Amino acid sequence: MRTPVYAAVLAALFAAAAMPAAACASVASARAGDPVVATGASVPALLGAAPARLIAYRYQGGRLSQVPLQVDERKLFDVGNAYQPALPSGEQTLVYADAAYSAGSDNDPSFDANDELALLGSSVGSKAPKGLALPSTLRGQRHQWLRVNDSIGRESGYVLVGEARSGVRIDQSAGSHPLTYKFSLASGQQYSGYRRAQGPNPEASSLTTPTYSLGFSDRWMKDRLQIRAKGASGVDILDMHKSMISASSCGRSERTFSDGEGAFLTNRVGPVRAIRDFIGANSGPYTERRELMYPGREDVETFLRVHAIGTVVDFLDYSAAAAGMTYRNSLNPTGVKVDGQPDAIATGLPSWSQVSGNQGTLTVSYSHTTSIIGLPMTGYYVDSTHPTAPQCTGDSASYAASGAAVTAGMTTTDPRQSGYSHFSTAWRLYFGGRSSGGAKSAAALDRRARQALQVTAVR
Fold it and tell me: What does the alpha-carbon distance between residue 313 and residue 286 come to, in Å, rounded to a whole number?
């Protein structure tokens, strides 16, 4: 742990900050697009620093060079307080602070234990040689070397993070701006005009990265996906991300969720990720969806907080533009053609699914966490131009509509009710070019999703 230095002698010692003997190893290039996330609690030397003054470097090619760093402040918050008037749930949860939206500013403006440092695997460097001088920006300042461990490749790399000297102008992005995210209400109003008590709140929101782009037409309605990775055609292959209590009824769907009460906790973007976080799903006013969008990967996290509903289903329904792609999952690695004609495939709960073709490749890793013992779940898949289930939003067909479902036993997850349970899902979406498909690559991506890069503070 390093602390601010006040004596010239100590400053000289810090200028020769030591790491153990130099090494060439770093995190494998295959993990360049994976996030590297550290909480303030894991970087004690930086606690109390000004978030806007933190800066990161890596050692590569015989020198230290700055890399993009994003500092996201978090806070404990009762999401029910996002409503006007407030509808407290009685439960505090960690959310990303955002002064422009309902989460509001962090109660502690300094870098505290629950705040996060976010980088990408591509920013991880090698171990610095012993006696390497610190950058002038950090000399005499608190700083910390972080070791980033890849349990898959059994390799480690390093990043240096510190608080820049006062008066020195810094750019945390290091000149890198791979994400363009714009939250935009179709009415042209600012968020202050958002109808929290009753929707809809039509949007023209969008995200663009070098690898993919997304479009959102309302809070729960993600209805555009274009893969922009190498060789991909760039057509829009998404009809809708659909979230329902039952696929056989439109009584509760992404449309009714968006039409009901709701609010945005966070909409922010930096050099590493964009964060879109919202609540409100009809009688589940505290149900939350958080989207963490990186340059080559999207993490979609859903936290169910609602009375007993028995079943729930969540899936991506692709558009007719996805025809000709191959759909496969961990239970059906050979795959079937996406053509709007029903397929006989092995059933069960897959760990991953993938669509690939000239349109590009999308691989989804599925996981869930629950306190409900023995909760029955299975995969969902429909490929039909004339599906028997109603199409509540989007077009009239189901092209490789795929995801996961709880088939029974979803007891109350509403924090206002005694004995409530917890249920959440996490999808990790990877975007690749036209030639990056296949069961082997999908399984490798699924493994990456499940074994995150681990960060440890070292001297």
Answer: 18
